[in-house]
Amino acid sequence: MAALLPAEWIKNWEKGGKSEFVQLCRALSENKNHDVGFRDIQQALYELAYHVVRGNLKHDQASNVLGDVIEFREDMPSILADVFCILDIETSCLEEKNKRDHFTQLVLACLYLVSDTVLKERLDPETLESLGLIKQSQQFNQKSVKIKTKLFYKQQKFNLLREENEGYAKLIAELGQDLSGNITSDLILENIKSLIGCFNLDPNRVLDIILEVYECRPEYDDFFVPLIESYMYMCEPQTLCHILGFKFKFYQDPSGETPSSLYRVAAVLLQHNLIDLEDLYVHLLPGDNAIIEEHKREIVEAKQIVRKLTMVVLSSEKTEEKEKEKEKEEEKTEKPPDNQKLGLLEALLKIGDWHHAQSIMDQMPPFYSTSHKPIAIALCQLVHVTIEPLYRRVGVPKGAKGSPISSLPNKRAPKQAESFEELRKEVFNMLCYLGPHLSHDPILFAKVVRLGKAFMKEFQSDGSKQEDKEKMETLFSCLLSITDQVLLPSLSLMDCNACMSEELWGMFKTFPYQYRYRLYGQWKNETYNSHPLLVKVKAQTIDRAKYIMKRLTKENVKPSGRQIGKLSHSNPTILFDYILSQIQKYDNLITPVVDSLKYLTSLNYDVLAYCIIEALANPEKERMKHDDTTISSWLQSLASFCGAVFRKYPIELAGLLQYVANQLKAGKSFDLLILKEVVQKMAGIEITEEMTMEQLEAMTGGEQLKAEGGYFGQIRNTKKSSQRLKDALLDHDLALPLCLLMAQQRNGVVFQEGGEKHLKLVGKLYDQCHDTLVQFGGFLASNLSTEDYIKRVPSIDVLCNEFHTPHDAAFFLSRPMYAHHISSKYDELKKAEKGNKQQHKVHKYITSCELVMAPVHEAVISLHLPKVWDDISPQFYATFWSLTMYDLAVPHSSYDREVNKLKVQMKAIDDNQEMPPNKKKKEKERCTALQDKLLEEEKKQLEHVQRVLQRLKLEKDNWLLAKSTKNETITKFLQLCIFPRCIFSAIDAVYCAHFVELVHQQKTPNFSTLLCYDRVFSDIIYTVASCTENEASRYGRFLCCMLETVTRWHSDRVIYEKECGNYPGFLTILRATGFDGGNKADQLDYENFRHVVHKWHYKLTKASVHCLETGEYTHIRNILIVLTKILPWYPKVLNLGQALERRVHKICQEEKEKRPDLYALAMGYSGQLKSRKPFMIPENEFHHKDPPARNAVPATVQNGPGGAGMPTSVTINTVRLEEGTTEETDKLKEKSQGVVKVINKTVNATPKVTTSNGSSASNSKIIKEKDDKEKSGKEKDKEKKDKTPAATPEMKALGKDGKDKPKEERANKEEKAREIKEKTPKSDKEKEKVKKEEKASKEEKSKTVVTIIESKSTAEKEREKEPSRERDLAKEMKSKENAKGGEKVPVAGSLKSPVPRSETSESEREQKRRKVDTHSSPSHSSTVKGTAVLPKVPLVSENYSSSRVISVHFLQDNLNELKESSAKHYINHTTPTLSKSKEREVEKKDLDKSRERSREREKKDEKDRKDRKRDHSNSDREVPQDSTKRRKEENGTTGSSKHSKSESPSDSPRLNEKEKEKNKSKSSGKEKGDSIKAEKMEKSSSGSKKESRHDKEKTEKKEKRDSTGGKEEKKHHKSSDKHR
Hints:
Elements: H1 7-11, H2 13-29, H3 34-54, H4 59-69, H5 76-93, H6 97-109, H7 116-122, H8 125-131, H9 137-152, H10 165-175, H11 185-199, H12 203-216, H13 221-231, H14 237-250, H15 260-271, H16 277-281, H17 288-310, H18 316-334, H19 340-351, H20 354-363, H21 373-395, H22 420-434, H23 442-460, H24 466-493, H25 498-508, H26 513-525, H27 532-551, H28 557-570, H29 572-585, H30 590-596, H31 602-616, H32 633-648, H33 654-665, H34 672-683, H35 693-698, H36 703-710, H37 719-731, H38 735-753, H39 759-783, H40 786-792, H41 796-802, H42 807-832, H43 838-860, H44 874-882, H45 885-888, H46 892-911, H47 917-955, H48 966-982, H49 986-1001, H50 1009-1018, H51 1020-1025, H52 1029-1051, H53 1053-1061, H54 1086-1110, H55 1113-1125, H56 1134-1154, H57 1156-1172, H58 1179-1182, H59 1192-1199, H60 1207-1219, H61 1222-1243, H62 1245-1253, H63 1256-1270, H64 1273-1300, H65 1303-1319, H66 1324-1346, H67 1351-1380, H68 1402-1414, H69 1418-1424, H70 1450-1469, H71 1476-1538, H72 1544-1560, H73 1565-1585, H74 1591-1619
């Protein structure tokens, strides 16, 4: 063999030999051929060592280089030891001692490279001794001999039975032979017996050897089992068990590992019942207690992991340490001590011994055994085998081949399932033991799910017998349990397997949602706590969800969405629960979350629906914010999320809808928010109060126009989602129940829920409930087919009477049904006869309407008391409620607007250079198609509207029956039709206004347009106060549309003449029934109409100011909303606008800190009002006034008798009232209220009559005009200042006392008034006046007794009587004028005859009245025909129970206020010539005089009052006649004033009055203002009280009034003095 170390290396060792040697060793150690390398290194080392032995190399040089080389190979020390061993033998043989020394020195130098033990093994004992590794070589030799003997030669056991080893050898040969031939166990057994006998073998040891051989030859079960069985007859029964036990014991030391063959043998013996499990179980480790402890420890560890995951760890080092700890723990747990019980269990499962396996599992904690993967897999395999035949028959999907599984070879394995019934016996049981660990075998998971699907198909197909049905029910409940305990938990442990999720959904979708949600609930709230693994998974899922949600933004929706999808496949409940909790806190997450949910499986969407419902129903969350006035933001966020997610993804809605229905049943309406959002997003139906008029107009067109112009957002692509919503509602029969529940809940909000809640919140909930009803009803109407709708909605009487649906809601639901019905009937008739003429078509349409509506007319009768139908017919009622804006008018401008938009769009498309041509073409086609649709729709609607108007023309004569009075008819119309509907929705508000106008245009008999409008504008306080926020908005819209019509008429005489001039609605004489005489004289002329409009504006101002002053939240909020809505048409008059502005400004200041929402509203309105200011006009431009003239008095006289002309001054008062200082008003309040009450009573009797007749309105308007013209600017200013203090209290009194005081209070009022008056002194003149008044009243009484028999005579007598009354009034007025301060004005003191008259003018007036009477004056028509009829009109109809009744007595209010105002006019206008300075002087002088007069008059009045009391009883009989006369007189006077052309009767009184005025003008102005205002209040209050009174009382009151006029004036003197 060639030397590896050349001699030169040794020579030049230090220079290069050493490095060369090292490189050589490195090269050899890196040699890939292992054996060659080993030998070469051995040789290299040997040569090196040999050179040392020979002395060519020093031992320290060799040891150094060996130190370098030793690292090249792991076995290098061993190789070196071998080299030393060889050298040891060689050197010991050599005679040269120095070589031996060199060797020992080298070994000593290398001791640090080779361990002692290796050297002791390899070197000679003498060498070891010489090296100092052992003390004595001799002892070492002896010791090694002993050990060897003990190991190899000593026998362990004495063979006391004289066994011979040959016997065992033969036994093993016997058992180990080839068993494939004809050898049977019996034959072998005989041989074994022979061997035992022949060789004296121990039978137990023989059994042990049989078991050993069986372990080695497991495939020969059929041979060994019978052999052992027959062998056992020779042994004790326990022997086999003990021997197995000892075998298991042998492996129980910590490092031992029990072989699987032993487990298998034990399992087979157990299966064949050769041993008992109980006997063997005690031999196995670990003990049951240890297992339970381990299980508990696992749970604790899982909880700790959860705690660590939920902890917030800030420093990164800590987390690193944690990770290391985790790794260590995992290493520990990876090698658990051998668990023999589990090993045996696994073997049992593998051979299919389910019975024994089950009993072992029962000894352990639940799922402990299957949490070990081998056992879970073994059990899964057993299930595979058991379900194989059934799965092949029903479970394999079409087109799938699958890999069949062969059955187990042994016959004792569980029977394979052929039917679903057999599944229940074993398989379901096995699955329950598997629990969540089915996750180890996704294929088995899919098989089980497919079997479940197949079962559900069979279960849901009918036709099986009763017994089978019961079995199927049991199976179904088992399937649900398996789903709950096995399938869902297993899905949680699977690693994001979307296919399994979809597979599971295939089965789930066959379950009703109630079962599904129950399963999800268990999964989410219970399953995750049942097992340590699941606890960990839950924590990890939450941790991961937090990670994703922190990073989710609009920009990264896709990647985040994928992560969410991945996480959701396995643990959707936990994930969604966390996501929803985040959405409830941060609503800006809604959009990104909704977008990111697109990677979910169908099952996950369903779970999401459940999680949403659970979050909504969370009992721990408050639905209101802490301030108790608004709905919590978490609920609003969830609702918004609901709408978005249900629209975007195909999630089943039934559960959510049922939840809302259940909440409504329980009387809770918060959750309607969800329904509202869902319908809005899915169907694109918005409900908002913020609609512009353009949108509202578009909403009155067809469906296409609505979609294009009716909503804020363009509604696109809602077809699919609205279809889904419809299907969900119909499939679960929730459409009608939800509507009915909402309709009933509206009142529930107020009366059941509302108790403890803040009024603002109750209003919000009411609005939400109402809006949702409107929105939901709209959705049903537009999406349900006619058949579906008709099938579900019952008739109107059933809705109202059985389901207690409010009438407005009931008609709202029924309306689409009527429209459907009529159109289908119409189509039928058109097909039957093909006549194309328009006339034919209209005729057919009317016929179809009659057919459809006839039963409705019958049905509505039951909705109200029979009394109602005396005034309005059921046909009219049904027509009003069944029509919509679509039927009444075509929104041409809306159609034009949308068509123009499309044209612009098309032009933009043409101009767009960047758009590709094919897209251009598509877009243009879309626009053209849309345009055609719109035009077609417009044409269709136009035809429809024409047909409807024809129908109404034919019906109108039977609409209003007015069996009581027109007044009553209007009351019923407003109460039962207009008011409930105008606050129902914005479109209904517009509809109501339009309908009123339509009824007027149709010249409907018995309909007084004037009265109707008057009622609507007169007392809006009550209606406004009783509205919710949204209702106020709709009511505002209604008023806005009404004002729009009125303003149009007011703006132009031509329009007025055309649309109102000769219409029965503008008759000023109201007849009991059936007469609409076209007499021009009875019509309200244009100028008077303008007065009336001014009065209405004034009324609105008064009501607004009242509401703003109350301080009540609802009053202020609602009136501000209403005012904002009517801003386009009101205020138009400058002074009214200023009054409002001041009041609103005050609200802004007061509410800034207190109620910010009111402040915001007020500021908003205030800004808009300011911007309207340039468009307001002075009062004289709004209604006509004459230029100032000297002969002011005659003009006023002409005006006198009328009531309607007076509003202007009243208005002025309001304005002044605003200007006046608050101090003054406060002082005056007490005084004036007292006076007012008295005056109210005195005037009480008269106004009523005029009101009912209505003729006086127009006259007074004329008067008013003239008065206005007389007034000069300066005086107006002065008077404003004067009047201010008095006006305010009166207004308040009007608002508060005027309407509602019960009868009992009246007496008190009178007494108070008397006391007050008694305190004031009277003047001589006043006494005389009082005497005259008394005389006049006596004359009246005597005259009235006789009359009433004949109409003419009554009329004449009235006329005679009136002058005397007029005289009294004149006196009153004079006294007032005196008070007013030097202004010569005849004041309209009493309501009936505001014009003071002299005795001489009686005959002239009579003549004038006769003239008027020839025009069928009211005195005949109304007073004579029904003396007692008209006055009894109730202010509030009995039927209308709601608080929203508006008392709208047109002329009562007119007269009350207008007369006062006219009186004020006189005051204001008469003395244009006086300069301010002169006036002041005159006032001072007159003050003293007036005081004296007032003192004298007061004394006189006291006497009169006493006399009157005595007269009360006597006058009772005479009263009714009196009152009728008075009524006639009023009518007469009003008539005369109307025909101001016939001046002769009124001239002379005017002259007389002029003189009187000159005398009186010296009294103070303020007093006059006060008295007038007081009168105003009397009038309004008396108007409202009147109905409940009898005519007798009226006459008495009139007398009182005449006599007490003076007293009132005196009282006012006092108050005015104080002010001065």
